[in-house]
Specification:
Elements: E1 11-15, H1 20-31, E2 35-40, H2 43-51, E3 57-61, H3 67-81, E4 86-89, H4 104-129, E5 135-140, H5 153-172, E6 178-185, H6 207-219, E7 224-227, H7 230-240, H8 243-252, H9 269-275
Parallel strand pairs: 1-2, 1-4, 2-3, 4-5, 5-6, 6-7
Helix pairs in contact: 1-6, 3-4, 4-5, 7-8
Length: 285
């Protein structure tokens, strides 16, 4: 095992950092002595979150679907805090619907926020970190990036894309000094999971648990981060079995209805409305 690194004084950017996983990650990083920059569409909430952090921090408006704006945001962070040491690509949305009920606008929003923005952020981070031969990129994916869940086909596709991107970039960056981590949580108890139930043996996790896992992967770099850790073993087991047997296990655990059953839940109304307004830059063709 390599020695534990220090995050004290490191400049760390968290996209979608105003609430949920992003806010808890920002707080955990600040406790480690990092200088944290929060980017979010909701500047008021981002400033409130930043104001509760220890040490030097910053909150700036960020629409990750506006690629020029995203790059300008990173420039502003570097001007005010210094060269970026870590980028946490956390911003994401999860609208739920059967694919034949999903409108094209929702599909585009998910692709722009969950995929294109992560690609752009990763590329921008590489351009800044690679010449300095140091840095760490953290891409927040999901267990949905390793499996398929009815009721969230496009979301699953986007998270598979994040896993594939991270795998590829990790190999591209070998020997450059720039690390990559891919985070794959189960259902996290945030607004994004509104209306979702619990599946057998797949317990939901608190955003603080994901935040601590991210911090752990920065202190001792590793690529695969599953939250909880048992997800890795469960995924490996189902993939080793014949397809029908693996799918039977998923059905037995209730995984096939975990997202589909919540697609029309009244508890998701507020979140779905907010997600529908979350990609203004995607409409600026």
């Amino acid at each position: 095992m390599g020695r534990t690194r220090s995050l004290r004084g490191k400049v760390i950017v968290v996209t979608g950092g105003a609430q949920g996983i992003g806010a808890k990650t920002a707080a955990a990083l600040a406790r480690q002595g990092a200088k944290v920059a929060i980017g979010d569409l909701d500047l008021v909430r981002a400033e409130k979150t930043a104001g509760e952090l220890d040490g030097e921090n910053l909150a700036l408006p960020l629409d990750v679907t506006d690629t020029r704006g995203f790059s300008a945001f990173l420039d502003e962070v570097e001007t005010r805090l210094g060269p970026i040491d870590v980028l946490v690509n956390n911003a994401g949305i999860m609208p739920l619907a059967a694919l034949d009920e999903e409108d094209d606008a929702s599909t585009r929003r998910q692709l722009e926020i969950n995929v294109h923005a992560v690609i752009h952020g990763t590329r921008e981070a590489i351009k800044r970190m690679k010449p300095r031969r140091t840095g760490h990129i953290v891409n927040v994916a999901s267990m949905a990036g390793k499996a398929g869940f009815p009721g969230a086909a496009t979301y699953c596709a986007t998270k598979h894309a994040v896993v594939g991107l991270s795998e590829s970039v990790r190999l591209e960056l070998r020997g450059t000094g720039v690390e990559v981590t891919c985070v794959m949580p189960a259902i996290v108890q945030t607004e994004l999971a509104s209306g979702l139930g619990e599946a057998k043996m797949i317990k939901s996790v608190r955003p603080e648990e994901v935040a601590e896992a991210i911090v752990g992967a920065l202190l001792k770099p590793r690529f695969d981060v599953f939250v909880p850790k048992s997800l890795d073993a469960m995924g490996r087991m189902t993939r080793l079995l014949p397809r029908k047997a693996g799918e039977w296990i998923v059905r037995s655990l209730g995984g096939d209805q975990l997202l589909a059953s919540a697609a029309h839940s009244p508890a998701r109304t507020e979140y779905e409305a907010r997600a529908a307004e979350s990609a203004p830059g995607a409409e600026k063709d």
